[in-house]
């Protein structure tokens, strides 16, 4: 599953990530992209605190991308 949180600022990227994680099955992956760079660390902290795995995370000039395994 993929979601784009471009144009939103915290806490919305984290809340949208939570909602999407709730809708996928254990073992599936969620890709989140956005343009508010501080959200990357907030999403990472949120998913790791809940026992999910960050498979990939990067920042670039346009924003960020993070892949989470539930």
In short:
This protein has 2 helices and 4 strands.
Structural summary, described in words:
The chain has 70 residues and is an alpha+beta fold. The protein has a single domain, classed as Translation Initiation Factor IF3 (2-Layer Sandwich), CATH 3.30.110.40. 33% of the residues lie in helices and 34% in strands. A four-stranded mixed sheet has the order 1-2-4-3, with helices on one face. A hairpin with a 2-residue loop joins strand 3 (53-60) and strand 4. Helix 1 packs parallel to helix 2. The chain is globular, with a radius of gyration of 11 Å. The model has no long low-confidence stretch (mean pLDDT 97). It holds the Pfam family TusA. Residues 3-27 form the UPF0033 domain.
How would you describe this structure in keywords?
single chain; 70 residues; alpha+beta; Translation Initiation Factor IF3; four-stranded mixed β-sheet; 2 helices; SirA family protein; TusA-like_sf; TusA-like
- What's the overall average pLDDT, rounded? 97
Assign the CATH architecture: 2-Layer Sandwich
Distance separating the two termini: 11 Å
**How is the largest sheet built, in terms of strand order?**
1-2-4-3
**Using DSSP, what is the number of strands?**
4
Which term fits the overall shape?
globular
Q: What is the H-and-E element order?
A: EHEHEE
CATH topology: Translation Initiation Factor IF3
Rg over CA atoms: 11 Å
- How many domains, in number, for the residues? 1
**CATH H-level name... which superfamily?**
TusA-like domain
CATH class: Alpha Beta
Helix content: 25-40%
Give a quick account of the main beta sheet: strands, pairing sense, barrel closure.
4 strands, mixed
Oligomer description: single chain
Question: How big a fraction of the residues is strand?
Answer: 25-35%
Low-confidence stretches: none
Number of helices: 2
Organism: Methanococcus vannielii (strain ATCC 35089 / DSM 1224 / JCM 13029 / OCM 148 / SB)
Protein name: SirA family protein
InterPro entries: TusA-like (IPR001455), TusA-like_sf (IPR036868)
Pfam family, one: TusA
